[in-house]
């Protein structure tokens, strides 16, 4: 399926001097790199393709994959789709009024030249940050890639388009509604859940901080986690 989607974008013409690398092989090289993190030298040995050629293939094919899949799987959702996500969070994870779970992933890199400590993270490695929101089935519904490894999750979130979209309610999040069995709380907004690195907002829930918590807070943190 993926090959059918991107083959027109990544196919090359044969020349009088040599046959081109097929779209199937170009896709296989890129997917192997993305799946394993193998070095170009390792891929060079496995596929019998030069390292410089592999580096160009990975960039080109990855971009083609993104351009083809993003409109299909990461487009703005309708109110019905958000409602379905919320319903599945309640059924699968027993967390009502939830429309996503957010966290950051540090993708380890070689430190760029003259970058100082910008990419140096708290784990002692150099990285860029992938910030992602997933649905109850672990599918990505929003991503933001490329922030410095030295940035905190909360700091990255404060600069994301997603934050502005949540505050302005411009992405179709369902309106507030009562929690099951708790009508006395009134209408409660739909939220994205994150860990303690994120701020507490109307549309962003984080755990109760600290260790010496009341039983009710511990129960909530368990369900939140």
Account of the protein in words:
With 225 residues, the protein is of the alpha/beta class. The protein has two domains: 2-73; 79-224, no CATH class. The chain has eight helices and five strands. A five-stranded mixed sheet has the order 3-2-1-4-5. α1 packs across α4 (51-73), α2 (23-36) packs across α4 (51-73) and α3 packs across α4 (51-73). The two termini are 35 Å apart.
What profile does the largest beta sheet have? 5 strands, mixed
The gyration radius over C-alpha positions equals 22 Å
End-to-end separation in angstroms reads 35 Å
Number of strands: 5
Task: Look at the helices and sheets and give the structural class.
Answer: alpha/beta
Q: Which sequence of strands runs across the widest sheet?
A: 3-2-1-4-5
Low-confidence stretches: none
Approximate strand percentage:
5-15%
Q: Helix proportion of residues, in percent?
A: 40-55%
Domains (count):
2
- Compressed to H and E, one letter per element, the order equals HHHHHEEEHHEEH
The total count of helices amounts to: 8
Shape by Cα distribution = elongated
The overall pLDDT average reads 91
Defining traits:
225 residues; alpha/beta; 2 domains; 5-stranded mixed β-sheet; 8 helices; elongated
Helix and strand arrangement:
Elements: H1 2-10, H2 23-36, H3 40-47, H4 51-73, H5 79-93, E1 98-108, E2 127-134, E3 140-148, H6 153-159, H7 161-168, E4 191-193, E5 204-205, H8 215-224
Parallel strand pairs: 1-4, 4-5
Antiparallel strand pairs: 1-2, 2-3
